Structures are given as structure tokens and as C-alpha cells.
Automatic annotation (TrEMBL):
InterPro entries: Bactericidal_perm-incr_a/b_dom, BPI/LBP/Plunc, Lipid-bd_serum_glycop_N. It comes from the Eukaryota. Residues 1-16 form the signal peptide. Coiled coil: none annotated. It comes from Panagrellus redivivus (Microworm). GO terms for molecular function: lipid binding. This is BPI1 domain-containing protein. Residues 26-249 form the Lipid-binding serum glycoprotein N-terminal domain. Keywords: Signal.
Length: 493
């Protein structure tokens, strides 16, 4: 388990799809450089052993064959790799310090005269490997496209064992060497070409659409990349849909959900990676999906009250005894609320239009209208109390991530309360006691239990973040961090 600030995970907190990205990821050139060098690590692993086709040559009645040619222990020194982010939306790299070994068996024969065999090894003195890449998106998943590749080996140094070694080396240098050199170049280029599908195969397996658990299973989180990423010499920008949606409402495009003007910064990130979230779009989308679902209405009864702290579980019972009981605070209810009965609460919730950020976290306003009645069916029981509450729902600033799900805590505070009974209005101090003793705990219990299964995150197990900083800028929440992208780790997941 590890802890992260809540806002680093706001990439997930958008409900109800709108055709606009809810978040922008900006990667610095240093982060891209590190990611490309991680790809070089993958190439080093992928080209550890490559079989090269047999080669042969005949000259002056002498037949020379090189068989079982193997390229082994290939290594590009990642610290000598040069990476360039280009104006044409590509990233290129070139490596000039390359090491590898090649071994093969040879046979030299002349018809009816002699046949000699042995084995040789080859080391390289210099050479280069270069590629051009582009980060794209396909069906919401990141894809690293290989645009070009080139491998060129320099001087090849031979060490042979067997008969006629001097003659063999001369033949290799003059006859077979160009063929073996080209075969090595071709084999490395082919291995580079084959490495990228392995990376992309793993990337596409990372789920971008994840359902929530338990009572929120009708909600999904869509982490799809929105539009195509862009790369410049200053940074790489990746727009992320970052929205939740309700089953059957993915394509709603509600007019109430729209982006903030100038939501995302144009300049490069201050750190390796910065995540900017349009919190207005986040909240408007959340409000739409919530009101579209059946979660905007609620029914609270004895089984729910039974999960309150023990001294509060009987607060709504008609035979509750003591100072802090509903029927004690409102004695007029005793003639209606008979021993053995329990008060049920039916209500609706409306979310406000704005979101507020302070040093505690994010605050969402809500309005609830509740009916306290005898009987489980709304409108068919005896009404005891009508309560209206304007509340603030605080998404606390720190959360924790476990098994790639986001867990946190919500607290609720009231900003205005009013209540009436069939006999008239209730004194504000009595309403305040009802709130403080039972309703605040009840609201927090219900919300936190609903979120108890956590919000599933994409399992980006090949990326680590360090030294996370948060700041608020207008409608944006910005989170910046150092980052390490390890594609070598990805392909082994």
C-alpha cells in the first residue's frame, strides 16, 4: 500500500461522458528521454540471441560456408543513447556504443582436394542503431509506432580456430565478411521491428474501461486516450478522457457538461510529468451521472441504522430511551410513533453546480430533502418529519492506493438545516442536535460504504512516481512529479 495525494488520482473522478478531455498529461523531454532509453533496455533483452541465416561463397573452385551463425550478448549502452524530440511529432534515437558477439562454424573445401572446418567468433569495434518512433493512440490505448529503423556495424574483428587460419581470415575479410555484416545488420533491424509489437501487446492489455464494485457496479471509469498525443521538442502532451459513465449513458453528451475556457496550460511541465485536471468539467460530469442514476434517491432503514456506533443505533426507534432519541427531542412524535416501530428515511439528493478546493480537499455542495416516516414505502406511511439540509461533502485530501484501486474518506458537514413536523416548524437547536447526533454519521456511513470497494485505476505497474506536488490554478488542479517509465518491466508483467 502507498499513499498519494487525492488530486493525483483526479484523473479518474469524472462521471458522465462528455466529448472533451477531463485531464491533460504533459511529459517533459527528460521523461521522454528516460522512456526511450527504457525501450533500449527492451531491445537489449530482445536481441540477446539471434540466429542469422547460413552464408556461403564460391570462388576459384573453393567453396566457403559459414553455418550456425549466432548473434549473442547484444548490448546498447543506454547512457550513450542520444534522444531527440522532433517538430514532426516524432522521437528519434541513435546509439553508437554497441557490443555483441557472433559465433559460427566454417567449412572450406575444394572438390577432390581438401575439406577443412573450424569455428570463428566476431566482435564489433563500432557501429550504430537508430530508430524513429511516434506515440499514437488506437481505440484509446497508447501505441508506440516504429517509423524507421537502421543498424550498421563497423569493423568486425575475427578470431578463428582450426586449420589454415590465416587463409580462412583472409577469405572471411574479402569474401564472406560483407555478407555476414549485412546479415548482422538485417538481423538487428528485424529484432528491433519485432520488439515493438511485444511492448504494444502489453500496453493494449492495460484496461481503459473499468467497472466499479458492489453497489456502484453500474458505473465505469473510462481512461481512454482522447485524440492523438502530440510531441514537440519541448514536451509530449496526452489528453485523457478521464470520465466515469453510467451503464447506458456513455454517449449522452449532456449540454450541462462542458470544459472550462483555457482549461489546460500550453507550456512544458515544471517536472518530469504534470497532470492537469479540469475540475469544473469533472464535477459537472459527476453531477450529471449521479442525477441520471438511481443513487440520487435513497432509503435508510433499521439495517442501515444498525451499522452506526452502538450508542446511536436506536436513535430512530420508537421505543428509544434517553436524551438523545428522536422521540425525546420531538415529544410530539410519541403519540404517533409506537413502541416496536422504527422510523424510515426516504429522500433525494441534488448536487450543486460548483466545486471548491481548500487545504482540506475538494468540497461539493449538495441539497437533500428527507421524509421521516413509519413504513418502508415512500408516501405510503405516516410522515413524522420533513427535513431539508444543505451540506458540504468533503473529499479529503489524502487517499491511499491498494491493489490499483483508489480508497479515501468522505466527511459531511451541514451549512443549513430546517425541519417541520405535521404540527409545525422545529426549533433550529433541535434540528442541529438531530444532525450532530445521528444524521452526520449516517450520511458519512452511507457514502463511505458505497465507496468502500474503491475506484479502480489502470494498473500502470511499470510506472513509478516520486516527490508529488499539488497546486490549484483557477479551475485546474495540477499535480507534478518525477516519473520513471520502465518498459522492460512492462513486458514481463
Amino acid at each position: 500500500m502507498f499513499k498519494l495525494p487525492l488530486f493525483f488520482c483526479l484523473i479518474v473522478v469524472v462521471l458522465g461522458l462528455s466529448p472533451h478531455p477531463g485531464a491533460l498529461i504533459r511529459l517533459s523531454t527528460a521523461a521522454v528521454d528516460n522512456a526511450v532509453k527504457s525501450i533500449v533496455d527492451v531491445l537489449n533483452e530482445h536481441i540477446q540471441e539471434v540466429q542469422i541465416p547460413d552464408q556461403s561463397e564460391k570462388k576459384h573452385h573453393i567453396h566457403l560456408e559459414a553455418r550456425d551463425i549466432k548473434l549473442e550478448r547484444f548490448n546498447i549502452d543506454r547512457n550513450t543513447v542520444g534522444v531527440n524530440t522532433n517538430t514532426d511529432n516524432t522521437v528519434s534515437f541513435i546509439a553508437q556504443h554497441i557490443e555483441f558477439k557472433v559465433s559460427f562454424h566454417y567449412q572450406v573445401k575444394r572438390k577432390h582436394l581438401f575439406s577443412k572446418s573450424g569455428h570463428c567468433s566476431i566482435s564489433v569495434g563500432d557501429g550504430h542503431v537508430a530508430s524513429s518512433l511516434r506515440l499514437t493512440a488506437d481505440n484509446g490505448h497508447p501505441v508506440i509506432s516504429l517509423l524507421s529503423k537502421d543498424a550498421g556495424m563497423g569493423d568486425l574483428h575475427y578470431k578463428c580456430h582450426g586449420d589454415l587460419i590465416d587463409h580462412i581470415i583472409n577469405w572471411l575479410s574479402g569474401i564472406i565478411k560483407p555478407k555476414i555484416k549485412k546479415a548482422i545488420d538485417d538481423a538487428i533491424e528485424k529484432a528491433i521491428e519485432q520488439a515493438f509489437p511485444k511492448i504494444n501487446e502489453k500496453l493494449v492489455q492495460i484496461p481503459t474501461d473499468r467497472p466499479l464494485s458492489s453497489s456502484l457496479a453500474a458505473f465505469h471509469v473510462d481512461y481512454s486516450i482522447y485524440d492523438q498525443p502530440s510531441t514537440t521538442p519541448q514536451m509530449t502532451r496526452i489528453s485523457v478522457l478521464s470520465q466515469f459513465y453510467l451503464d447506458g449513458h456513455k454517449d449522452d453528451n449532456p449540454p450541462s457538461v462542458f470544459p472550462s475556457p483555457g482549461a489546460f496550460p500550453d507550456g512544458p511541465p515544471e517536472r518530469d510529468i504534470c497532470l492537469n485536471v479540469d475540475s469544473n468539467l469533472v464535477f459537472k460530469s459527476a453531477a450529471y451521472a449521479f442525477l441520471t442514476s438511481d443513487k440520487s434517491t435513497f432509503h435508510l432503514d433499521k439495517p442501515v441504522f444498525g451499522r452506526l456506533p452502538e450508542n446511536k443505533r436506536k436513535f430512530f426507534d420508537c421505543d428509544c430511551a434517553g436524551e438523545l432519541c428522536l422521540i425525546t427531542l420531538l415529544p410530539s412524535l410519541k403519540s404517533i410513533c409506537k413502541p416496536g416501530e422504527t422510523v424510515d428515511i426516504h429522500g433525494t439528493v441534488k448536487l450543486g453546480v460548483d466545486i471548491i478546493a481548500d487545504d482540506r480537499g475538494l468540497i461539493i455542495s449538495a441539497q437533500t430533502d428527507s421524509i421521516f416516516q413509519l413504513g418502508p414505502v415512500p408516501g405510503q406511511g405516516v410522515t413524522l418529519l420533513n427535513l431539508n439540509a444543505a451540506v458540504g461533502v468533503l473529499l479529503e485530501k489524502t487517499v491511499h492506493i491498494q491493489d490499483w484501486s483508489l480508497f479515501g474518506h468522505v466527511s459531511v458537514f451541514q451549512t443549513h438545516l430546517s425541519a417541520t413536523t405535521p404540527l409545525g416548524a422545529i426549533a433550529p437547536e433541535i434540528v442541529q442536535k438531530i444532525w450532530e447526533f445521528a444524521l452526520a454519521d449516517l450520511a458519512e456511513l452511507v457514502i463511505n460504504e458505497a465507496l468502500g470497494g474503491g475506484i479502480p485505476l489502470p494498473p500502470l505497474k511499470f510506472i513509478t512516481f516520486d516527490q508529488v506536488d499539488i497546486k490549484f490554478t483557477g479551475p485546474l488542479v495540477q499535480v507534478c512529479s518525477n516519473v520513471n517509465i520502465d518498459f522492460s518491466k512492462l513486458i514481463h508483467l
